[in-house]
C-alpha cells in the first residue's frame, strides 16, 4: 500500500505577512497524510516563481514593468506579484483561456492583451509589447528565476517529510518540475521524480522517448495549464533529472478531481489534479519499476477552475 503524501504549496512571506497558509496533515481513505496549503489569492504554485522573478529585479528595471504570455495561472501570479511591488504587468493571454483565470489577472491589476491560442501568436505579441514598453519579459517557465522559485516547493516538502522517496509533478513547459527536480535531487540524489502529463498534450513524454524536444501541431485536453511545450532551459533538466513520465487520459483527470471534491473537499483544477490521476492510474500501479515507491508526494498545483467547463466535462 502506498503512503501518498500530498503537498500543494507551503508558506511564502512578503513584508513578514503570510501569503499562503499551511494546514496540518489529515488522513482520508487509502490516501494518507495530506499536507494542504491554501493560497488565498493566486490559487496556484506559479506565485512562487513570479515573486522570485519580480522581487529579484533591480528597481530601475522593475519600474518599467513586466511582460508575460500565459493561459492563466502564471498571468495571475505575475499580476499579483507586480502589484505587491507596485509595478505594471502586461499580460498576453490567449482568447481560449478560462474566464476565471482572466478575471484573476484583471482583479490583481494586470493589463490584459489578447492573442490567438497558438504559441507563435502569444510570443510575437509579447515581443511587440516589450518593444513598446521597455518592460522585462518574465517567461512562464523558461526562466531561471521562475525555475528557482518553483524549487522552493521541494525545500519545504522535504523539510516537512524527509522520508519521501518519490515526487509526482505535473509537466507542461517544465518550469515547475525543473525547479522541483533540481532542488529535491540536490537534497536527496536518490529521490525519484515522476512527471504526469495528459495524453492529449504528451509532448514531454514524446520528447523524453526521442531524446530531443518534440512539439505538437495541436493539443486536446481539459488541462488548459498543461498545453505548453518544453523550453531550452527546462528540457535538459527533464531529460537528465526526471525519471519517467506517466501519461493519463482526461477521463482519469476528471475522476481524480471528483475524488478531491468528494473526499478531500479540496478544489483542484484539471492541471493540478493530474499527479493524483497518475498515481491512481493502472499504468502506475501495474508498473513493477514503481513498486518500491513507498512515500509518494503528489503536487496538486492549482485550483483555478472554470466551473462551466468542469460541469460540461462531468456531463460527458
How does this structure look, described?
Belongs to the serine/threonine dehydratase family. It comes from Punica granatum (Pomegranate). This protein has helices at residues 46-55, 59-63, 73-85, 99-107, 119-133, 144-150, 152-160, 175-187, 203-210, 234-241, 250-264, 270-280, 282-285, 307-315, and strands at residues 3-7, 13-14, 17-18, 21-22, 26-28, 31-35, 37-38, 66-69, 89-94, 111-115, 136-137, 166-170, 192-198, 244-248, 295-298. By secondary structure, the chain is an alpha/beta fold. It has 2 domains: 3-40 and 147-315, Rossmann fold (3-Layer(aba) Sandwich), CATH 3.40.50.1100; 46-140, Rossmann fold. The strands form 4 sheets. The chain has a 7-stranded mixed sheet. Strands 10-9-8-11 form a 4-stranded parallel sheet, sandwiched between helices. β5 (26-28) and β6 (31-35) form a beta hairpin. The longest helix is centred in the middle third of the chain and has 15 residues, at 119-133. The chain is globular and about 55 Å long. The chain starts with a strand and ends with a helix.
Amino acid at each position: 500500500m502506498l503512503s501518498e503524501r500530498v503537498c500543494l504549496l507551503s508558506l511564502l512571506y512578503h513584508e513578514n505577512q503570510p501569503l499562503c497558509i499551511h494546514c496540518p496533515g489529515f488522513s482520508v481513505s487509502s490516501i494518507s497524510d495530506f499536507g494542504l496549503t491554501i493560497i488565498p489569492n493566486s490559487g496556484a504554485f506559479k506565485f512562487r516563481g513570479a515573486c522570485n522573478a519580480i522581487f529579484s529585479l533591480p528597481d530601475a528595471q522593475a519600474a518599467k514593468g513586466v511582460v508575460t504570455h500565459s493561459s492563466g495561472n502564471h498571468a495571475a501570479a505575475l499580476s499579483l506579484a507586480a502589484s505587491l511591488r507596485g509595478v505594471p504587468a502586461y499580460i498576453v493571454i490567449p482568447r481560449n483561456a478560462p474566464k476565471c483565470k482572466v478575471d484573476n489577472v484583471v482583479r490583481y491589476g494586470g493589463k490584459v492583451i489578447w492573442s490567438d491560442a497558438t504559441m507563435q501568436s502569444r510570443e510575437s505579441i509579447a515581443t511587440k509589447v516589450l518593444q513598446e514598453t521597455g518592460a522585462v519579459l518574465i517567461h512562464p517557465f523558461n526562466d531561471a528565476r521562475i525555475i528557482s522559485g518553483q524549487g522552493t516547493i521541494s525545500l519545504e516538502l522535504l523539510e516537512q517529510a524527509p522520508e519521501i522517496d518519490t515526487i509526482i509533478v505535473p509537466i507542461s513547459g517544465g518550469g515547475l518540475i525543473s525547479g522541483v527536480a533540481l532542488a529535491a535531487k540536490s537534497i536527496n540524489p536518490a529521490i525519484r521524480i515522476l512527471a504526469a502529463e495528459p495524453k492529449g498534450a504528451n509532448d514531454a513524454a514524446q520528447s523524453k522517448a526521442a531524446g530531443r524536444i518534440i512539439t505538437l501541431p495541436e493539443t486536446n485536453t481539459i488541462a488548459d495549464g498543461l498545453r505548453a511545450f518544453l523550453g531550452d532551459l527546462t528540457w535538459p533538466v527533464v531529460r537528465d533529472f526526471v525519471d519517467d513520465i506517466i501519461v493519463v487520459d482526461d477521463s482519469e483527470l476528471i475522476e481524480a478531481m471528483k475524488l478531491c471534491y468528494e473526499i478531500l473537499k479540496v478544489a483542484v483544477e484539471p492541471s493540478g489534479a493530474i499527479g493524483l490521476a497518475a498515481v491512481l492510474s493502472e499504468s502506475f500501479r501495474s508498473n513493477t519499476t514503481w513498486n518500491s515507491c513507498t512515500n509518494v508526494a503528489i503536487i496538486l498545483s492549482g485550483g483555478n477552475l472554470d466551473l462551466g467547463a468542469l460541469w460540461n466535462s462531468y456531463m460527458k
